[in-house]
Amino acid sequence: MGKKMQTAPLPENEAQRQQALERYDILDTSFEDIYDEIAELAACLCQTPMALISLIDRNRQWFKAAIGLPTPRETPREMAFCAHAILQPNAALIVPDAMLDRRFSDHPLVTGDPHIRFYAGIPLVTSDGYALGTLCTLDTVPRTLTDQQERSLRTLSRQVMSQFELRLLVRYLREANSSKEKFFSIIAHDLRTPFNGILGLSEILQSTALDCTPQEVQELATDICTSAETAYGLLENLLQWAKLETQSVAFAPTEILISTAVDRVTKLLTGAAQQKNLRLQVLSLPAQTIVADANMLHSILQNLIANSIKFTPPGGTITLEVREQGSTIQFHVRDSGVGMSPEQLARLFQIEHSKSTPGTAGEKGSGLGLLLCQQFAQQHGGQIQVASELGKGTEFTVTLPRFPAEPADVPAT
């Protein structure tokens, strides 16, 4: 019976390892000089004709650099020598003669072109211990490495990881800069608008109050109040978002009566709904508790219902429904509003695309409310989902665990 090539088993931490690989966002990028030069130096130091920077993805081996091997950018994972190497993140995999190694003796790259005999791979290991792939050298003749060559290969593998970390840092800095620009854009434009409204209306009231009828004064006062409420809402979202960005927001879960949390929000927003002739209704409210941060839960519900009010034309309906689903509580906010296109849905939770869209009555916003909802839900170990269709309305579903891993031993509020 003929021999069969041995496929490397998956590492025990494969799911976490894959997540670590994906956070670097390097798969399927172009060849880059810095990685080619490291691979060339590895081949030179080890005196081998071939060298690779190889990353082990779910079902493939993908090359960030390939020296001396006219290979495609990827091969099936089961064919990867490097898939064996990552099983021992802290050790080098040295194969002096692949023809004498039962794992590789009938490998198609050993028995056929390019006739690999020698392999030496050093795992590329993250700071938290996950092996992403290898820096490896290969030869067509049996051989081994000197201690100095192996040390040099290890040094170069750390340089590859340094480049990966630098890439990650640059991405984080770009994202942070984007967030900073968004923050100042909101302050400069969106927050200025309602304050300008307050100042302008106040000046009109101040200069014409004696000549105005009580009804005209009441109308001006109402407009001033609306502008002030808009400014306050914008400022509140900005402050909450800034705290999240600086990681200074406290997460303080307590046991909360769901009915109390819902009543608090609906009482706050009933007036706004009535002003637009909208029906705000609550369905299937369980008389149960949830362990959550009261301020965050309030912010989630307030932002979602306020968003529905903003984008629902007069005469429409907004529904808040609360359901118990296993060990979770689901908050459904549905409206009969203008809805969203697939393109809008795809960009909904991306900071670089978040912007204030005027509501059906010209209402302003910061574009941050939904981002806050998503981040607050994630703080609880929950998630937010959205379904929408243009002209047919939108439904947001927030799913939160009813209890955290270690529920707080406090009375219900």
CATH topology of the largest domain: Heat Shock Protein 90
CATH superfamily assignment of the largest domain? Histidine kinase-like ATPase, C-terminal domain
Low-pLDDT windows of residues = 406-413
Q: What's the gyration radius in Å?
A: 30 Å
What structural class is derived from the secondary structure elements?
alpha+beta
Number of beta-strand segments: 13
The major pleated sheet works out as: 6 strands, antiparallel
Trace the largest sheet across and list its strands.
Answer: 3-2-1-6-5-4
Order of helices and strands: HHEEEHEHEEHHHEHEEHEEHHEE
How much of the residues is beta strand, in percent? 15-25%
Distance between the termini: 73 Å
Helix content: 40-55%
- Overall geometric form: elongated
Overall CATH architecture of the largest domain: 2-Layer Sandwich
Our count of domains comes out at 3
Please, how many helices? 11
The CATH class of the largest domain, by name, is Alpha Beta
**What integer is the average pLDDT?**
83
Which terms would index this structure?
43% helix; alpha+beta; 3 domains; six-stranded antiparallel beta sheet; Beta-Lactamase; single chain; 413 residues; Heat Shock Protein 90; five-stranded mixed beta sheet
Structure description:
- This protein has 413 residues and is α+β, with helices and mostly antiparallel strands.
- It folds into three domains: 14-172, GAF domain (Beta-Lactamase, 2-Layer Sandwich), CATH 3.30.450.40; 191-249, no CATH class; 250-413, 2-Layer Sandwich (Heat Shock Protein 90).
- It contains eleven helices and 13 strands.
- It has helices at 14-23, 33-46, 81-85, 108-111, 147-190, 192-208, 214-245, 258-275, 294-310, 342-346, 369-379, and strands at 50-56, 60-67, 74-76, 93-95, 118-125, 131-139, 253-257, 279-283, 289-293, 317-325, 328-335, 383-389, 393-401.
- Helix 2 (33-46) packs antiparallel against helix 5 (147-190), helix 7 (214-245) packs across helix 11 (369-379) and helix 8 packs parallel to helix 9.
- Mean pLDDT is 83; it is low at 406-413.
